[in-house]
Design brief:
The complex is a heterodimer of chains A (219) and B (113). Chain A has helices at 13-28, 44-55, 72-80, 97-103, 148-151, 153-157, 177-187, 204-218, and strands spanning 3-10, 32-38, 61-67, 83-88, 114-118, 135-141, 161-165, 192-195. The radius of gyration of chain A is 18 Å and the shape is globular. The longest helix of chain A has 16 residues, at 13-28. Chain A has a 7-stranded parallel sheet with strand order 4-3-5-2-6-7-8, sandwiched between helices. With 219 residues, chain A is an alpha/beta fold. Chain B has 113 residues and is of the alpha+beta class. Chain B has one domain (2-112): hypothetical protein PF0899 fold (2-Layer Sandwich), CATH 3.30.2320. Chain B has helices at 3-20, 44-51, and strands at residues 26-34, 61-67, 70-73, 79-80, 97-101, 105-112. A 3-stranded mixed sheet of chain B has the order 2-1-6, covered by helices on one side. In chain B, β1 (26-34), α2 and β2 form a beta-alpha-beta unit. The longest helix of chain B has 18 residues, at 3-20. Chain B starts with a helix and ends with a strand. Classes of the chains: A alpha/beta (219), B alpha+beta (113). The interface between A and B is large, with 35 and 37 residues.
Chain lengths: 219, 113
């Protein structure tokens, strides 16, 4: 006899449970953590370099770098002054909560104020796998085009802050900022947004002030 | 994409509920997937056939109920499904809009014997 069992359980609930445990570990150790997500080439690592370079004198920063195969990004974060470790996902297109769980013991969390997790470059999958970090930041960039909120709504929907990188290219690229921000506003009303250029440094101060404020607020 | 992670998670949820019900076999899974979170497609069935092998859920059929994005205008209360490059209200043009549906991503039910 066929019997229908009602369930209504989120498909990736196992990931979400481990993410909640990760959050508790980070809370217990007094670490403020953020998850950097973006498409490949948007400037995740460049923003980490700029952030670490400018805040390393006041905050102890660690970076966990998710990459499909190489350690190039972790090397750049370390060169900028962070304690950096690498997670090679072995082909997976995103980090998940289990990968972060396995990486956390490799850090001396008691000695860390700010943990930046650099996700794999991808605008689809990371949105479905919360890691347990306190905040998620999406780094968009001008050359990607202004239609990305419309094409990747899940990613824009779930983040706590938005960086718009490479604003120095605005004179050269047809990017309708109004159109872009209108899509963002509908998906994520009031999302705190930082237009900036990692190359010229323009706009970085506002981003760094926000980030420092968040660390202090959680500290 | 990450069909494998999705499929493994589905199997864990399915077997847990099937065992609680003392089921002998699982015949159907009913998935609800919103357009805004649509990261899985029918290829998940192929992964399922691999990961569920030698379990009581082997051979179960995955049924998808897809939910279109639905938005409501905060200004004129028009309810609409947005097109691909426009989220503004088609009635009054307002950008003050809230999302009513489209973010679903869950296993709704299973059929067991």
């Amino acid at each position: 006899m066929t019997n229908r069992i009602p369930i209504v359980e989120k498909i990736l609930s196992a990931n979400d449970r481990i993410a909640a445990e990760n959050r508790q570990i980070l809370e217990d150790q007094g670490v403020f953590s953020i998850n950097f997500m973006a498409s490949p080439g948007a400037g995740k690592t460049s923003l980490i370099e700029q952030t670490v370079g400018r805040l390393a004198s006041e905050l102890k920063i660690a970076v966990i770098d998710g990459d499909i195969a190489t350690s190039l990004d972790a090397d750049r974060a370390a060169a900028a002054g962070a304690v950096a470790i690498q997670i090679n996902t072995g082909g997976e297109c995103h980090l998940d909560a289990v990968m972060l769980r396995e990486a956390l013991p490799k850090l001396d969390l008691k000695a860390v104020d700010l943990l930046i997790v650099e996700n794999v470059g991808n605008l689809v999958c990371p949105a479905n796998f919360p890691l347990g970090t306190h905040q998620s930041v999406l780094i968009a960039s001008i050359p990607e085009g202004d239609d990305k909120p419309y094409k990747y709504p899940g990613m824009y929907r779930g983040v706590d802050a938005l960086v718009i990188n490479k604003t120095d290219l605005l004179p050269y690229i047809p990017f309708r900022m109004d159109f872009f921000q209108r899509g963002v506003e509908i998906l994520n009303p009031g999302l705190v947004t930082f237009p900036l250029s990692c190359r010229t440094g323009e706009g970085l101060e506002a981003w760094l002030a926000w980030l420092t404020g968040e660390v202090e607020r959680h500290g | 994409m990450h069909e494998l992670a999705v499929t493994e998670s589905l199997l864990e949820i399915t077997l847990r509920h099937a065992q609680n019900a003392n089921a002998l076999r699982v015949d159907n899974l009913y998935l609800v997937i919103g357009q805004l979170s649509s990261i899985i497609d029918d290829s998940v069935q192929f992964y399922w056939d691999i990961v569920a092998k030698d379990t009581i859920a082997e051979g179960a059929r995955l049924n998808f109920r897809r939910i279109a994005t639905q938005m409501e205008c905060r200004d004129c209360q028009q309810v609409f499904t947005p097109d691909d490059s426009q989220f503004d209200c088609p009635n009054c043009g307002s950008g003050q809009v809230r999302i009513l549906a489209g973010e679903e991503f869950y296993l709704e039910a299973i059929d067991v014997q």
